[in-house]
Amino acid sequence: MAIQGTHEPEFVEVLAEFERNFAERGEVGASVTVTVDGRTVVDLWGGTADPSTGAEWTEQTLVDVWSCTKGATALCAHILADRGELDLHSPVARYWPEFGQNGKDAILVHQLLDHQAGLAGVREQVPPGAFFDWERMVGILERAEPLWQPGTRHGYHGLLFGFLVGEVVRRVSGRPLAEFFADEVAGPLDLEFWLSLPAAQERRVAPTIPADLTAPGVLPPSLFTTAMADPTSIPGLMVINTGGYMVPDSFNSRAAHAATIGAVGAITNARGLAGMYRPLALGGSFADVRLVSPRQVAVMGQVTSACSVDAAVLVPTRFASGFLKTGDNSHLPANDKEGVLLAEEAFGHSGMGGALGFADPKAKLSFGYSMNQQGPGIGVNERGQSLVDAVYRALGYHQTHEGGTWFRG
């Protein structure tokens, strides 16, 4: 497989692992970008963007990065918080009065970011195509009753996070989430990163290739087996009651890419992910663009919610006000062992099937990895983790034990 792009000599192991992903780990098309101290040290891409046509993955290829989108949406909320326009510890209903129905009046903004609001799913039947209609989803969430008493449990708000946090951003800023992100983040940083993709860019998108969970030897995560066995369970409500979104003809459609689905719908590539996190790796600013203050960066990296069994994804998770933190699930059964192994100071977000973007302020590191072939889990699989591991080794980091947190010293 011919790999394109550049890397600095000390990061040659990243190239080697990227090549191994294609040769040994089932990669189809992918890109990886790394910056250190603001400088791009790795920018690689290769493979096939669309197996149905044979189109190559080029420097210009874009792809849905799934839940990496949550990092972009969370960043928008933190920008407003840093400006004093949004109090993360105030009730959501202060900014979005209609939200305070049916036992939701005391839910705090940070509980939306921390996946503690009891809205991992909704019991009301979500109509076909509703994820493409922002106002319709807002109405459903306004009427919803929490699935548990808010603040008492942690359960990943996998598909609804973006509508929840994004509507708060809209109410506070007066701008739709996608417009706010374009104006305040992607535009100033000159990123090819969209929360609502313009039609002119559609031809560049590589379709997502879902993992075949029925293939021999594949063990679906407990999230999916539980959801299929009981669609009324919390995992079932999260992944099945989506108005049909979670099927390839839907999430790969032009309608999906044009819509604003702030939990899972961002279209970008590794360069876009690493570019978004680059200022956050440098105290909040890069190249005369300030996203947030160093004080807010510290808030963004501080663990605010953690649990041994997440009510929605059924594995341990750790979050920092909308961002995923390092988590070692290697002790779990094979179908649930995917986590993400970073340094403790790092924060970012993975995407279903393996995508990843994060910042590590201590290492002044930002990282992005995007691909079209999803793995069977919802965390970071061997392909992405091998790239992360190679980056940290190049920076002189070590692990506490095999599969443990990365640290310098």
Automatic annotation (TrEMBL):
Gene3D superfamilies membership: DD-peptidase/beta-lactamase superfamily
SUPFAM superfamilies: beta-lactamase/transpeptidase-like
Superkingdom, natural source: Bacteria
Domain Beta-lactamase-related: 18-376
A Pfam family assignment: Beta-lactamase
Protein's UniProt name: CubicO group peptidase (Beta-lactamase class C family)
Organism: Actinocrispum wychmicini
